[in-house]
Amino acid sequence: EYMGEGSGKKREVMLWLVVVSSLCFPGSKHTHSMPQHHIGNHNGINLEELVHQLEHDIQLEEEFTWEEPTDMLKTGPISIPDSDSIGTLAYRIEGRPVGGTVPVLLIGGILEWSYRWDFLAPFLVANGYQVIRFDHFNRGFSDDVLGNFDDAFYVNEINGLLSHIKKRHTDIDLSSINIIAHSMGGAITVTYLSDPSAVAVNKVVLMSPAGFFEAGNMVAVLKKLHEHQVDFISKLFLRATQSFVYKEDFKDTKCAAYQYCVDRQRAMLAHRERAYDSFISTVANFRQLFAAGPEADAMAARIPSSRILALLGSEDKTVDTAQTEPGLKAHFPGIEVKLIPNSRHCFFLEFQDLSHGYILEFLRR
Predict the structure, then answer these.
(1) Which secondary-structure segment (H or E) carries 132?
(2) Contact (CB, 8 A) for 244 and 107
(3) How far is 132 from 53, CA to CA, in rounded Å?
(4) DSSP letter string over 72-104?
(5) Per-residue pLDDT tens for 238-249?
């Protein structure tokens, strides 16, 4: 009530106290040994009840059935670096190139799956572009794998996808591609394009890209939890705060795109337990996620800044625009930056006409 957010905010603060107490008072024999599939009680608080309350903060207006899209394809087996795991990626190819347009690869964020492109992909197809979108491992309809979700992991993921497409879809010209990326997808793009194995890239659109801002307290806490092997608390936190995260990502939580995203995100998290593992491992191991450095400089040496467009939500706090804009300009002098007014992290879903227009005009130059 003091913070002006009502009972939902109070429960979120309470959950933070649970997280912090597990770090400050690790003496309880349950702290490190509680099975991940059982939440139960912790430090006198009924966590199961707390999660139940938090998960029902948003009342869904429609049912979303969790089933694989009929046009979803699967890659061949992809080996995971530094692991015995092998998995396949789920992907879709939409449209045909018209008038010599270059294919567009869409790369999503840390807990996103390819539904996020349900508005942009058809728009690009309608304007003559062939579009490739996919689900990261452990998310959407791609396989669950084990391994460190680090820089090498995500470079290998992109290479595995494109290598498969080259072999299976010989009619698709991947001698050069465009990349459009959102959030962590931006950090993946920078890391991938700094690697000698990357294919030639025509243009890049970075939408609220991770990697150019200072990590906040939540990241520090999750890293510490991972270090102390209490990932069940991290999973609890992620499960319980999905509604809050999306409320912060949209300016207007009554817009249709907001409900569309919440329905699909909650469905995935209900069916893909390993999505939480991938989130925690990525935060702990993916260096580029919060520290743009040599990789960004290597990308800048490879692609002229005039071929990079950054779209930022003017009020984005998930990927802090106040830090991200100068960070981008420092690594990519001459980069074109467009601010979407009165918008947050998911501006490309909430303000489609403006963001789609900027993207199309840039690709057509």
Answers:
(1) strand 131-134
(2) no
(3) 38
(4) -EE---EEPTTSS-EE--EEEEE----TTPPPE
(5) 665 555 557 788
